[in-house]
User: Fold these one by one.
Assistant:
Number 1:
Amino acid sequence: MTITSRNSHANDTTALPAPGSTSQLTSIIAWTVLLTVLGLVMLATMRSPEKDDIAWLLYVARKWLAGQRLYTDLVEVNPPLIIWIYAIPAWIANAVGLPPKWLAVPGFATMVLGAAWWTANLLRDQGAIFARRTPVFCAIGTLLLALPGVEFGQREHLMAASVLPYLAGMAIWLNGGSLPRRQGIAVGVLAGLGCALKPTYGLAFVLPELVGWLRHRPVLRAAPVAGVIAALLYAVSILIFCPAFLDHAVPLALALYGGTDVTVLDLIQKATSLLLGDAVLCMIWLLCYRHPNQRTSFAEAMFTVLMCFALGATAVYFLQGKNWFYHRIPAVVAVVLALMFWAADKLPSMITDMSRAGANFWPTARTLACAFMALVSIGTLAFGEAVRMRPWIISAMEPEQSTEMRIEKIIRR
């Protein structure tokens, strides 16, 4: 199966890495980081009390499997797709006699790592910085594993992973290439079902699709068509199998979540690091990728798609009116990936230019300024992540001291 791309290697400024010890060392380091993060996340998630949302979804899934009716016998406001997904580990856990959490957490890790592997495969033939699949996969996988923290397995987490292959295919199209039809249908179906988990995030695709249509003549591609059809078929399945969702869950959700909206100032305060990341992406795009003398490359196309998706996902976060972190996960994933890919694309050539006598000062200065902004953005996001994860890590180290365990002891008394 071949993915076509217009001048995928010719337009990149960095030569393909020669095989050798450096390549092997990079792969070893990448695997070490990924497996270490995977182990730590599994340990923390297994030992700490379950997040209330995730514990409830597993409970509802088990009761549904036991014969109770969704939205009639079981009070629930989430759409049925997430219940069906959670029912898989719940059913296996019940069959083998294990706690559902022990199957759900590894299952979610497998899902996001599968999406990361698929994305890395799609990017493999598109340019020098993506040519080695292992480091790209490990970078994406590490981010998807580490970022959610206690929100591991939330709808937004799974959705953010599921749309990455689609975004990679969109970048290939933006750069003048195309996916094979079956591949395009597959990534479209996955993205459509991913958006069905949280339909409002379908708005995040409007800006990248608009940019693509402005650069190319309007064309019906397999991926978006398949995504829309998959989402529509899912909607029809709700009408057939879960009609009570519209009668009971939707009115309850509107009443329940409508009372939890916060002010715009509070939304901005909680999303300061994300908004800074969005601003940095826009500045980098203007300074590094839209320079009049800069040739178009696949790295620019990938950066543009991720930037547009991040801006759209940030807008969705504000439209939802909640200051919950997991509503920001899709946007944060796109911001961090865009900054990582930009650094891999530009920094090696900048270092080469700095070591060369008579090199043009302004391109190097421009890249240095962008690198500083990217470092500040990543640092701000990392600091916020550390503060947010601290209680989760403490509860994993000393689960008996967690608030959940203390409340359980009080109830049992």
Number 2:
Amino acid sequence: MLTRPYALPGSDLNRWAQNVELDEFATVRALLQPGRVALGVSSLVARSSCAPAVDGNTSARGCAYCLTMPTDAHHSNLFILAMDHRDSLQKNLYGIDGEPTAREIAHIAAGKELIFDGLLQAIALGVDSSTVGVLVDERYGAAVARRARDAHITLAMPIERSGRTFFTLEYGTLATGDWLTHLDDFDPEQTKVLIRDNPAFDGAARARQLHDLEAVSRTLQNAGRPLLLELLVPATPAQLAAVDGDTLRYDRDVRPGLTQQIITDMQFHGIAPAIWKIEGLETRQAAVDVLAAAQAGGRAGVSCIILGRDAAADRINRWLHVAAGVPGFRGFAIGRSIWEQPLIDLLAGRTTEADLVDRVATTFTHFVDQYLAAG
């Protein structure tokens, strides 16, 4: 269980925190003693250690630093079956444009339940249930989320609207807080946000996204909810041109450095994930460097997992072997590479529901075994 001992009310210490050094815990203690002005937590966690509660209440809420301190949970493996796909799923696999009907929603939801059955079968056949998680959305996967809770499987749920270039909430706005109510209804262990970012993107758009992410991160901190941040770093045309259009060279030679820069940018703006969900890395040195960025500034409890990106099995196997050898990486969150083709075959009438369940179980187990063998 994560330790959540401190409550830090307040809103903004961005300017002050820039001058706080990691070894100045005594200064932080003094500034946040009862009777002092509450400065908030959003940027403190990007620069400093945690501090005691202003009001002495240590029962429920926690700052992000506390949520990312090393605990048994952070040293354990975590193998997530990702199925929170929405926009691409309904369009590309189910051929639905626009808002789906109730019947179409039920059809998509039934497919997700079959995929989850495959995960349960993998557990029944020997995958350690304590290491298993599922990432699923409320729109099409509410039933799966509830089944995961009942089965004591780690649950992660997204809050971003699917199919958008920049971060937008799925439910409500930052001002209304409706999105947090939706989280409360399911109480997932991790709250997932997918972000597409690149230092070469439009500066104003990046600034807006960073601002919104900081607000989300701060709200989740105050609610005691760890953030799982999925980071995609798509290449710009100029970056691809610099590697002669070779996407493998971009992934190997360019993307790791961009990933580190983005992580540092987000930390500077007070965005504090407990887990970074990272695109696969081609070399051990890249994995070491990305992890170092994620854990910089006293964030030793922050961990990373590898995402699948709908890649072929041999490419994912390589990514898992690279990551498993680097302490601080703890597993994966893989989705379409496990269940997409079986679901396509089912929808086309080429296979049965039982075969889909078997194939999901087999492929998920394969990736677990690959990671464990390399670790």
Number 3:
Amino acid sequence: MRLVVSLSVALCLGLAVQVSLGSAEELNPDGAVVVAQGDVPAADELGDTPKTTTKKETKKTKKKAKTKKAKKKAKAKKKPKHDEVRKKVVGEEVKPKDGFAAPYSYDNLGRGFDGADCTHQGLDIGGVGESAGVGTPVHAIVKAEVIFIGTPETNPKKFGKRDKRKGTETRSGVKVPRRLEVEGYGEVYPFTTSNGSSRTGVFIKTRVLEGELAEHSVRYMHLSAVRPGLAVGDIVEPGDELGLMGATGFEDNLPHLHIDIEDPDELRVDPAPFLGLQEVRPSSCTPINKKKKAKERKLKKGKGKKGGKTKKDGSRKTIRYTVEKGDTLNSIAQEFGVTKADLIRRNDLADPDSLKAGQKVKIVVYE
């Protein structure tokens, strides 16, 4: 009796085990146990064991993120977006001072006047429109006399060699044609294959005739061409066309116009306020060569030579001499006690033997 009960219990238990296994396993026809797919997680689903983070590590991570965010914020504040700066500079009420005119559109202002002790002492205005603005007109900012015109054709060593190749030049990701036809100018070449010693490219220098900047010189650089017919001795009015936007005299960056103003003592003046621009894009100052600055200070104190004459008390006088018939650079130099080389340098004379009666010559003497 006991044996029968035991066998019954064993059979029941076996059946229970088989039923239990059926929920997690299947028996194939051969009797082998097959584990049901999907019931056991794959190894890559299990993942890594969660890493315990200490309070110290959490604090360090938060501090790092905070520092990174602060640096990013400071950088954005230091270098504002160009469009934001342009709006701040230009706005809707921009108007040059009386007697002055805008040289070009202000829609793409570049670098401004960095300071008296910095190398960039002028204003850069970028080209606007198709082909980065090359071939568009550049205008005189004030009434002045044209006293010098420099081009690669007159002196390639000084103003760069003209690039007359076909095709395009890529500047800052923009493709600009190396040659183009402009009405009234003919074929124009906006680039040079070398910077030239002056690094100005096509260059026009004028002398202001009246007003607040009388006797100051205004220089327009990097043009692609000079207006046909414009010559030394011509008088230009504010807004008169001088030439065309270009990229001569430098081998990178987009086409732009560089304007600077120099007083009678050859010190640079910020052009922005005269053109209705109170503030221009911030830029880092590249200091002027220290040796050069030291030499200039030495000369101002009356120690050393400049213009072929020793300075005794440091006083300096600028004279605008009107050339008379029969004058030569040698005779003028002897009369004022300066050197011929100094006259050539101060007046940017491309051809020293081509003086004309009525021409103005700048002479700096020390008393």
Number 4:
Amino acid sequence: MKELVRVGTNYIPVMDVEQSIEWYVGKLGAELSYQDHDKAIINFANQSLFWSNQRKTKALIL
């Protein structure tokens, strides 16, 4: 049986992409991989986090 080694990317809707980047990069040392006006990808703790502006994306709320 194969085991899960890594989850490649997590999708996280955020209210403010720029503010999220500033906090994760500035406070936690994450690495910004991609950014445009309403989305970004950062690398942090061996994970890729994909953020999209929640105002333009329908978020799943559980």
